[in-house]
Amino acid sequence: MSSRTLSPRTTADALRREAKRWLKALQAGDADAAARFLSQFPGHATAPKLREVQHALAREHGYPTWAALTRELADRARTQEDRIRLLLEKSVNRYGTDPATRTWGDYEQDGAGRGAVAARLLARYPEITKSSIHTAVAAHDLDAVRDFLKKDARLAQDRSDFDGWTPLIRLAYARLPAGGADRGATALAIATLLLDAGADPDAGWSDQSPEFTPLVGVIGEGEGGQAPHPQAEAFARLLIDRGANPFAAQALYNTSLGEDSTAWLDFLWAESASRGETGKWTGPAPNALGGDKARSAVAYLLGNAVANDHPRRTEWLLAHGADANDINHYSRHPVLKHAILGGHMAMADLLRRHGAREPELSGGERFVAAAAAGDTATLRHLAAAHPAFLHRMAPMRAAIRARRVDAVRTLLDLGMSPDIADDHDHSALHAATHAGALDIARLLIERGAEVDPFDRRYGGTPLTHAVYIGQQAMAEFLAGHSRNFRGLCFAGKVERLRTLLTEEPDRANRQDRPGEPALFCLPENEEAAVEVAELLLSFGADPAFRNPLGQTPAEAARRRGLDDAADVIEMAAGE
């Protein structure tokens, strides 16, 4: 269905203008324009919309979608230097560290979408793999890496001007979306070449982040649930065999946050044992595992295991030097008390069997424990004697985390506010959102809880929290009640947004966060993002606004891979 080709002078702006002219001709009843459209979409019966005309124009040029066509033009418009930077930025897990500043902060989340951008660049411009050893490694181009090292073996230790990473670090954190077993095998071959040439298997990202070593990157996991390397165990073994420290504190922390698995504990302990270095696990804890506030690494990890109600990890840690009377690093409670206050009764019994001493509980702590355990009789008895307990967030938080609807209902019946919150204004509804406790969220709202309170730690409502952490069912529920415009944009709730915009059209440009009007708050889903962008623009949203980073809404959307939405916004900006 292709009849046209892109010339070196073709630009996305020119094609956008052409699509608009074509649409106007269709709306005016031009027969030639209609015949041209039907040649791409035979049998189309309704009045075409702009997106459909753009799609037809893309087909004329041999591209399956408008997004594919504009991506091609955007890639052509980039300089080679731009492409290299984008490849190095997007091809790896970065754990929230901005490569521009090399500091942790509000950087985009790791995920498959980032790797897809890098893969698209490589497919369109394979020659950029030859630009440096860093691009060759990012692309998993074994021959190119070999050629670079033949010319200068010292490149195995080169730190990139872009982000300060060595080639081996980049390889360990790389997560391109395709290739499977073949790419994994290539990665091992490249790692071997780099190590043979003198790469440091324990080099960190930088002096500021020495704990993020290649081994940490290979293992993955962490607060963002980062994907492990597809050949994680084989890659980890290679690194350790070549001198990497198997006591990888950051990796131990990262893996303590996910599933109740001892796989990496077993692996890394065995490697430490073979070197006679298990004392690192039971000696003074490194910073990533509590530092001088933890008795040892295993003590810190035990606190996490108990808090997350991980019995398998708890048993393992107790068998490898942890003490059932150790202290949780964060609460500073003995781990048994932490289990009791969290309502983890089976965990508490496990710790008792391993010699944990029964902790003394204050009246307030007994109230929290009763909430976590769903002991409504004790709640009523203690509340009658100590009504001040009903003005503390801790019992409500404990009941929510233990998903005890009965306890939450009892606390509310006794007079606790459904808007109870901690010192950072993290409310009961925020807590229910993070726990995925939909039934409790429903109960809180039925009892009058404010739907859109803002916490002061992250500046978000329960709805924005639900969207960010991927609690989709909770986001769906909250969106039906929320008036938080930013959150509704991220959730893609077009009809709810339309209702609010009809009431208050200025919401289209209002900044719930400084420098971030609604056009910067599009949902991750491409189709929903287009719908939200079109709605906001129809109510006067400013497509030329620039955020504190100097980005327009279209530029911000394109960096997130929302190319169709970016096109809609750019077209509006050109009107």
TrEMBL record:
Originating species: Nitrospirillum amazonense
PANTHER family referenced in this protein's UniProt entry, alphabetically: ANKYRIN REPEAT AND PROTEIN KINASE DOMAIN-CONTAINING PROTEIN (PTHR24198), ANKYRIN REPEAT-CONTAINING PROTEIN-RELATED (PTHR24198:SF165)
Record bears the keyword Iron: no
Protein name per its UniProtKB record: Ankyrin repeat protein
ANK repeat start and end residues: 424-456
InterPro entries the UniProt entry points to: Ankyrin_rpt (IPR002110), Ankyrin_rpt-contain_sf (IPR036770)
One Pfam entry name: Ank_2
Keyword Transmembrane attached: no
UniProtKB keywords: ANK repeat, Repeat
